């Protein structure tokens, strides 16, 4: 009887035991990717970027960013610069293709010229800041091996190791994914000697239109001693952006969504 | 006092508008409150590295204040952008808005409206650019300022403004741009006033002693220009067809009776394709230059028809380091007729002019320092033109830059070879606001 009871308990608890064990890491990173880069069908934000150099000097950038989710997981981005004065009215257009090279264009207003940008390395500085292009548009999930290496009360800890180590500057990076919001709240990058050299973190999160949103993000280059803080304002989702905005016409004539 | 040209009146009005727009906010009201005002103050100086008997040693010495007013309303967008210039090199300070000389140069003054959701109309003075070349132009027949380019002004001054109507149509499948220029807008070409040029009549290089004299084309609605582009994206590729009805943009012809250079009639038809190729961006552009006044190619005083071809490729070599390569071909289409009718003693062109370009761009110090080299080399003309440059952003407002324009050639009459004595270096400081 006792044995039967034990069997019963085991049978009954077995699925629960599975649930209590480690959840699927792929599911966690997938949800984090959705939460960080795909909130809503589209969105806009005004970004104030401050770049702090190692000697206390600062540079500022102001731009408005529009995003539209299109077929599959592809996306389109429109970045319109408002400051500093020498880059004012420049616009940057990206058609992101998951698993392939993105198409990128730069609009130079003084020349009235649409310049095509060579695909290139996505792990290069975005407009001279400590953020990389990949931090802005998201890194392909298929490019790393993901392992769940721990958890805190509030976050999952995921270690990511590149499948093609030659293509990136890091040996591995660890991401803290908030259990409540699924947002990645911190990423720490380690070099081949195992030394921590770069950190990207969410300093402030607010829920906007039901979507948990990072409204202040910090990227630090721990070797160079530089730091960039991005503050996001006027964040709006599901504003009904048309795909035609992400074309040459609206590079020449910036849409009201970015000039307002 | 000399008679005022109509252009001077226009520019005085525009200058007044710009000054009004930047006046203290108390003086502004209503509409002007919504005008976005920006600009820069740019000071630059340049020095010739070789003696030129017909020019000053100073190739560039100027202070330039650019002011821009931009209003983006619900119905209309308007923009005025002009430069107040104190130029020490030229002796001429009267404003000529066509040549861009004098104390004021109007870069843009236009209105943009979108009467329907498939049409944009931009009317007025504007900068126009199209085509796929990097500092090489096949189907872009909008005016260029070669003088500004060669003496070390910012590269944006290579594009001279057009006074035109641009209608852009946006059907589902692509874009149609139609540009109508009611009065011919020539290049701001090399006249010998600041840069010496090869004068075939004199058989030597000439400068201020013999500036180019031209038969202007200045009849409104008669000596006009049409330019057309039809473009669309095909996957990641951009494809375009082009057409142009107008004139050679620089005075390529010669009228023996008046002894002046002329702008002969020209039609151009072309096509281009640009897209991702082998981890970079490749481009191909073709153009047929139909020299209308010299259909047979047998008039030695008029330019021959040409076929032009461009192949380009750009990619990132390493982080923040980009390389661009181009091959360009200019082929005379009636070469036998050209050769047969060429007057004795005139230097003979090759049937094919080949040109290679190389661009290297390196960003350093958090992208605040840009080092760049653009080089042209023609194996057929045996001449070259190098444009090294460096610019450093001291702060978000202040930028220091410097560079050179280095010409070399075996012969005096080739395109870059004739400018050998214009070889110069320059330095600049700019405050943007």
TrEMBL record, chain A:
Keyword Signal: yes
Source domain of life: Bacteria
Keywords of this entry: Lipoprotein, Signal
InterPro entries referenced in this protein's UniProt entry, alphabetically: TP_0789-like (IPR033399)
Pfam family, one: LolA_like
Signal peptide per UniProt: 1-21
Lipoprotein listed as a keyword: yes
Domain Uncharacterized protein TP-0789: 73-253
Protein name as catalogued: Outer membrane lipoprotein-sorting protein
Lineage: Bacteria, Pseudomonadati, Thermodesulfobacteriota, Desulfuromonadia, Desulfuromonadales
